[in-house]
Each structure stands twice: as C-alpha cells, then as structure tokens.
TrEMBL record:
Keywords: Carbohydrate metabolism, Hydrolase, Magnesium, Metal-binding. GO terms for molecular function: metal ion binding; phosphoglycolate phosphatase activity. It comes from Caenispirillum salinarum AK4. One of its GO terms (biological process) is DNA repair. Its cofactor is Mg(2+). Its EC number is 3.1.3.18. This is Phosphoglycolate phosphatase. The active site is at D24 (nucleophile).
C-alpha cells in the first residue's frame, strides 16, 4: 500500500464515524518479553535445556506460542519433534498464564492515549497472535480490558496474522468497514495482515519487529505511542516518517 493508495487517516472518517483503532499487543501496547522469557526458561529447564535471554526471546515472538516454543527449542539445541510441539506448547501456555503480568507493563503513553481515544468515541480493539486466553488475562491484569470492544487472540479464529482473518474478525465484531479503521502494530505480520484486510497500518519503532522496522512496509512509523493521536488528528499529511 502506497501513500497515494492509502485512505486519509483522520478523525472522524468520511462516513462521519470516529476512526476505529486496532492494536497488536506484544511489542505495541505492552512490553511482555520479560514474562515470556521467565515462562520459556521454566519450560526449557524442565527439559534440561539452557536458558534463553530476553534479547533472544524478542526475536522469537510474534507468531504465536507454538512457533515461540519451536524457535526456543531450535535456539537451545536439537529442534523439537513435531509430535512433541503440541504438548510443549500447552505446557508453556499453562506456565505463562500463572504470571502473565509479573513484569509486563504497558509502554509509556499507552494508558493515557487509550483513555483519550476512548473518550473521543473511537472504537478500540486488540488483534494478536498471543493465545486468546492469555491475552484476555493479561488485559484484565493490566487494567487495559476496559478500553476494548473487541479482542481477537491466537486460536480464536482459524487463521493467524499475517493472514487477513483475525483483522476481518475484529472489523466484523466492531461493525466497522476496513476503510474506517487503522491498525497499529510492530511487525511484518501486522503490516501484512492489515494490508490483506484492506486496512492501513502504522508501526511503532520500539517493538519486536525481528528486523529493521523501516523495512516492514508500514504506511507510517511512530516512535512513541502517544503519536497515535497525531496520526488520528492530523491525517495522512502529518509530519511523521512515511514508508520508504
């Protein structure tokens, strides 16, 4: 999607309805790698595997729990047998759900920005590959659930990002057309899923992109979460970095 093709990002939309905002979770709304690392290292220790560092885990997240476990196994020795992955993933999720918010915190500006957007009447949603149950638990524990009218997590739809299905499910639940929404994420999965659903996408520069964020193909880049308000207020011609 080019700047020319991208619908104007403004508030309200051309239809008169406030722009809907769809957010990725890990690396966008919250810094969750510390708790993911603790849970992953617990699982690895149960199987006599060496621990992984937070910096390593930051490059493993984004594709759901099963892929995270698969990458951790490959990083610490022999790859996990395909027949073992379901059991390992189930155990990892069980460990993680006992302490989803032990050290996880919203990024600076997230709470205040969500409060402003909600007060202005913008429909807000979360679309993530994190397991759906863990997503709901984390949002509740961090007192973020109150902001969102729709939450789609991994396993709650047949597809995962980068497929369009999760984004389309969010749009349907909110009752919003694709051109009445904006996706905010941090990874190529977010950019591709949004594009496949016909939704423009901005990426934060502080998340878990697994590569140069400038190369993700996002329509816009923002350095701090409160710039979401600039994005909504100023429209497509705002003074923020555009896609290269």
């Amino acid at each position: 999607m080019t700047d020319t093709d991208m619908p104007s990002i403004s508030s309200p939309t051309a239809s008169g309805a406030p722009l809907a905002l769809i957010f990725d979770l890990d690396g966008t709304l919250v810094h969750s790698v510390p708790d993911l690392t603790v849970a992953l290292n617990h699982l690895l220790a149960e199987h006599d595997r060496p621990a992984v560092a937070e910096d390593d885990v930051a490059f493993m997240v984004g594709d759901g729990a099963r892929v995270l476990v698969q990458r951790a196994w490959a990083h610490t020795g022999a790859a996990a047998a395909e027949d073992d992955l379901d059991g390992l993933t189930e155990r990892f999720v069980a460990i993680y759900e006992t302490a989803t918010a032990g050290a996880t915190q919203p990024y600076p500006g997230v709470v205040a920005t969500l409060e402003t957007l909600k007060a202005r009447g913008h429909p807000l949603a979360v679309c993530t590959n994190k397991p759906h149950g863990a997503t709901l638990k984390l949002l509740e524990e961090l007192d973020l659930a109150r902001f969102f009218t729709a939450v789609v997590g991994g396993g709650s739809t047949p597809e995962r990002k980068p497929q369009a299905g999760p984004v389309l499910a969010v749009l349907a639940e909110m009752g919003v057309p694709a051109r009445g929404a904006l996706f905010i994420g941090d990874s190529r999965n977010d950019v591709r899923a949004a594009a496949a659903a016909g939704v423009p996408c901005a990426c934060v520069t502080y998340g878990y992109p697994r590569g140069p964020v400038e190369a993700l193909g996002a329509d816009r880049l923002i350095d701090h979460f409160d710039q979401v308000l600039d994005l909504v207020d100023a429209g497509a011609d705002m003074d923020l970095q555009k896609k290269v």
